[in-house]
Amino acid sequence: MAIQGSLLPAIVLLLLGFGLRNGKASDTPPAHYDTAFLNRTSFPAGFIFGTASSSYQYEGAAQDGGRGPSIWDTYTHRYPDKIKDGSNGDVANDEYHRYKEDVGIMKNMGLDAYRFSISWSRLLPNGKLSGGVNKKGVKYYNNLINELLRNGIKPFVTLFHWDLPQTLEDEYGGFLSHHIVNHFRDYAELCYKEFGDRVKHWITFNEPYSYSAGGYAVAILAPGRCSDWQQLNCTGGDSGTEPYLVAHHQLLSHAAAVKLYRQKYQSSQKGLIGITLVSNWFVPVSEAKHHKNAALRALDYMLGWFMDPLTNGDYPHSMRSLVGNRLPKFTKEQSKLLIGSFDFLGLNYYTANYAAYAPHQNSVNASYLTDARASLSSVLNGIPIGPKAASNWLYVYPRGIRDLLLYTKTKYNDPLIYITENGIDEFNDPKLSLEEALNDTQRIDYYYRHLYYLQRAIKDGVNVKGYFAWSLLDNFEWNSGYTVRFGINYVDYKNGQTRHPKLSAHWFKGAANEGGRGPSIWDTYTYKYTYKYGGTGGGFPNAMAPFLSGLWESACRPESAIAEELISPNPLFILKKKKEDIRIMKDMGLDAYRFSISWSRLLPNGKLSGGVNKEGIKYYNNLINELLANGLVPYVTLFHWDTPQALEDEFSGFLSPKIMDHFKDYADLCYKEFGDRVRYWITLNEPWSYTNGGYVIGTFAPTRCSDWQNLNCTGGDSGTEPYLATHYQLLAHAAAVKLYRDKYQASQKGVIGITLLSYWFVPYSDAKWDVDAAERALDFMYGWFMDPLINGDYPQSMRYLVADRLPKFTKEESMLLKGSFDFIGVNYYTANFAAYNAPRFDATHPNSNNSSYLTDALVNLSVERDGVPIGPKTALDWLYVYPEGFRELLLYTKNKYNDPVIYVTENGVNELNDPGLSLEESLTDHHRIDYYDARLSYLLSAMQEGVNVKGYFAWSLFDNFEWNTGYTCRFGFNFIDYRNGLKRYPKLSAGWFKKFLQKSVKLDTSSSREFQSI
Fold first, then answer.
1. pLDDT digits (tens, 9 = 90+) for 857-866
2. Omega before residue 758 within 30° of 0, cis
3. Pick the catalytic residue: 242, 421, 626, 911?
4. Which of 13, 39, 330, 434 could make a disulfide contact with 35, Cβ separation 3.0–4.6 Å?
5. How far is CA 247 from each of CA 157, 305, 323, 592, 1013, rounded to the nearest angstrom?
6. Does residue 207 have an active-site annotation?
7. Which residues, other chains included, contact 723 with Cβ-Cβ below 8 Å and sequence gap of 6+?
8. Strand locations in 530-665, DSSP E?
9. 580 is catalytic
10. Among the options 147, 169, 194, 207, which is catalytic?
11. Cα–Cα dist 973/455, whole Å
């Protein structure tokens, strides 16, 4: 349908001259599109997902099968200049002939229901029973309904979606006359009689507001009537009276049809009947009372115009007061018929407006356009209410759907509601290739955000039972013709109406059929705290980027590899992408791929008792098998920071010892399902980062830290919680390793380890206190984990400085920890200067207990010394290039920690994501070649000195979602075009890396080499 939002803003354009411009949304729910967090399971049991359509916009076959003309046939042919491209619905999507194909698309998408309308003039060509019933029309709708049911799809049937039989318009002016009531009732009865044995959800009218205002106030819809003085090139009419008459007769027709259904058909057919209304949400331009009242009046004139009679039996008081005698009156009998004349309410929501008080104009020219005394605009002080879509009336304001639902619940007696339309359009741009036209990331953004707020409304108690997206297919969009596209599926009008799924079709299929993955703490974090990471806010760019969330990769012999953290939409779509990516890895000559398993994809509730998600098992089996089929060895990480939200909610995740048993159960499941093919297991990735980011400074999920640090955290204690979270990560690791060794290792013949991160620390001076500070910095970042794994306890420096805040291991726990790895994964990126930092005494708060991991080490870390940086700076504030630190850290590990087997599991460099660069410029990454050349040279040097390194994994194969920096920087060898279907393009470094693996590139091992500045 998708027209109604243009009507109220038309008031502004006509009378007030507001300008409409694009901009960022004022509302910024998370720019994260993983269907793990929002999918079918996020909504109540039995919740219905469907798509919507209408007869004139979809069917075509205007003169086929005995159909009579409607007012839209007349309007588009008589006044083609009123349609933007001069088009019509004669053919439209040709669903009349292609309904089986379209039902197949719905089934493939996993939809539950299809909302369509019946063409009145296809059943009754003359609009009346006396003119005869068209049996071919009855047959068509029987065929459509049966095909839907045969495919498990429920029909939601609308009786009137604006295509009034032209004969009734010619005879008595259609809905301007009370005669229409009986004829509509007769038509409705024919539908109940012919289809009601299978149709269980009837909708009498679609958006009577749009039909009344669009057709009789501003003349942008058929029959194109309005007052001449408005100079809108109308066909006649009176904008001060006719909209109210038309609405009045639609309401009475609705009531008559409902009364008939309830008295004659409902008990035997056991169906429900309702009506679909539309409303924008209205935001007052300020808190001033007169502006707030203007917003409420705007709601009265759009939603209350119909809801008040249906609930209370009369129009809103504001309308009675301001419209006066021009507003028709209901008799007592009519009021009784109207009150409660619906079993459910269909609600269409697209957009929102700002509302301001508009003083009364002393004009004899009355119009619905000015009666509400509300000035409506999409822009306030030059700032749009949200991003603009293709239609000039549609600005994206997702939170409005929740506000509207809560308003409806509160004011109108908590009705049962279906969202019967919600959607967004893009321009029909003939210059785009098909691939470009299918890349509708803005639509994914729109649906994701609206479903998020819909879910919140349901949690707030609104009784919503289903959601219908507008629309399944691109279609004839009323006065816009075919100049815009609202479809989840693309229709190629120039090539036989061929249907092609857009990206949103894949995404929507994922939301409707998500493989059962539950939310993790990162899903929650990116939803609630967009400002804490490089979120895209309310805009459209990067909408599909979560298809790639954290790819790692390798660069070096003897074993080269890749890895990835999977936070993603529809698993089937990802696997398709993954196959493409595996081909890229194979072409580059890589040996291995390191990826992590999503705990909540296998165990949506975090526990075995909550059930195993078989779709998740299937996805990882497919991925592992695809890797092996291409000669790539899988290195599998069990935990890369995405704790199941259910465990965080129940007992605060890694702050509780309860986590250990659940992690062991999860690990057991992984060993059992995948261990016959996985030979390399990594229990935890960078427990230091998870602890520091999540519990010390609050930049990572679950974003906890001490209030006194003023880091805008959600609660926490930076002096105790980091140590607890680390303690239970270590014990969970030890439990998972013991299980593997006791139960699986002998038969599966694999090895298991842990991946740790460390910087290298350079003493700020040669003074002993600075040298000692550098040692303590290593203890507090690296030794915090390595010492327990080697010696069974934390470093002595930590025991001394942290004291009682540092948890203690029992003897049994120490025994479990010692040697609980077959290899160590080491991640290295950068280095810091370390200087002694004396303990501080706060004289103003002598009894203060403001302890924090940040200060416990008594070390001051910096990236500069005497104004000179430790190395060239990259796109991230923390990453300065210091390649020699790589060798130093490896030698330190060999010497202090008993010469373990090591895999370098991450190492890489980034650049800014600069949208101003051309593609060619973006692919020119000499700095990355220089970075890897230096790192690999120092790695080779360390190996020549006896460090037992068995492999190297580079970060990263692709640009990706970089945690709290979002998509603001790029780490990949391969460029991802987030705005163009996630296309992959090899950077210069990808070619260099491939040649290196082919032994056609020699490393620069000179000590005088310089890093190219970024």
1. 999 999 999 9
2. no
3. 421
4. 39
5. 21, 8, 14, 67, 68
6. yes
7. 802, 805, 806, 807, 853
8. 551-553, 560-564, 592-596, 633-639
9. no
10. 207
11. 38
